[in-house]
Amino acid sequence: MPAAAPCLSAFILAGGKSTRMGTDKAFVVLRGRKLVERALALGRSVTSTVSIVGDPAKFACFAPVIEDTFPGCGPLGGIHAALGASQTDLNLILAVDVPFVSAALLHYLVGRAVESPKALVTVPRMGRAWQPLCAIYRRKFRDLAEQSVRAGRYRIDALFDQKRTQVITGEELLAAGFSADAFTNVNTPGDLAAAAED
Fold first, then answer.
1. Which of 79, 159, 160, 182 has CA 20 to 30 A from 119's CA?
2. Please, is 99 exposed, middle or buried when counting C-beta atoms within 10 Å of its C-beta (0-12, 13-18, 19+)?
3. What residues does 151 pair with on adjacent strands?
4. DSSP per residue over the chain, as a string?
5. Tens of pLDDT along 173-198?
6. Domain locations in the chain?
């Protein structure tokens, strides 16, 4: 396994409302481990600097916690908070509910980001589906996020400028040996049951 990257921070987004799950997704157990524990282990596979973006009352016992500067703005607010707290140029943003992402896939994304210093974002896109919550952001993306949040616009992919976004296509990921199912979310009890059977 490649060594952890010293120039990279990782942030686990765990501030969602989990309405479809009926309980906090971060704490549901999949194959003996809470989703937040699985996500932290993934983050730590690429860097020793791993934090959670969420509620300190819930997560301080797991890792350092960052709170949203603009609460209630969805994942873009979480990305903004993470990049504002970061001390590194490159930053992995990872949702707590994508348990099929592998350490090898994260290393691949980090490597592609390192190779592309002009890209503000290195983000997978499977078909038409962007994966902005398993992507590498440069710290400067925070400025775009803040402008958008302040304007009441919370769509992350709307900020993916063609010239400054490195798209990792599904074809590229499949050719590199990664599964099309890697980004499957666990949003409902049914999703959790299906994930446990895989």
1. 182
2. buried
3. none
4. -PPPPTTEEEEEE-----TTTSS-GGG-EETTEEHHHHHHHHHHTT-S-EEEES-HHHHTTTS-EE--SSTTSHHHHHHHHHHHH-SSSEEEEEETT-TT--HHHHHHHHHHHHT-TT-SEEEEEETTEE-TTEEEEETTHHHHHHHHHHTT---SGGG--TTTEEEEEHHHHHHTT--TTTT----SHHHHHHHHH-
5. 999 999 888 998 877 767 667 767 66
6. 8-197
Count of other CB atoms within 10 angstroms of residue 112 = 17
123 vs 125: CA distance, rounded Å? 7
The dihedrals phi and psi of 31, each to the nearest 5 degrees, come to 55, 45
pTM exceeding the 0.85 threshold for the entire prediction: yes
Work out whether the CA dihedral 37, 112, 108, 185 comes out positive or negative. positive
Structure tokens at 69: 């500067």
How many residues would you count in the chain?
198
pLDDT digits (tens, 9 = 90+) for 117-169: 999 999 999 989 999 999 999 999 999 999 999 999 999 999 999 899 999 99
Which has the closest alpha carbon to 166: 124, 107, 106?
Answer: 124
Q: How far apart are CA 38 and CA 20, in angstroms?
A: 20
Strands 129-130 and 134-138, sheet pairing = unpaired
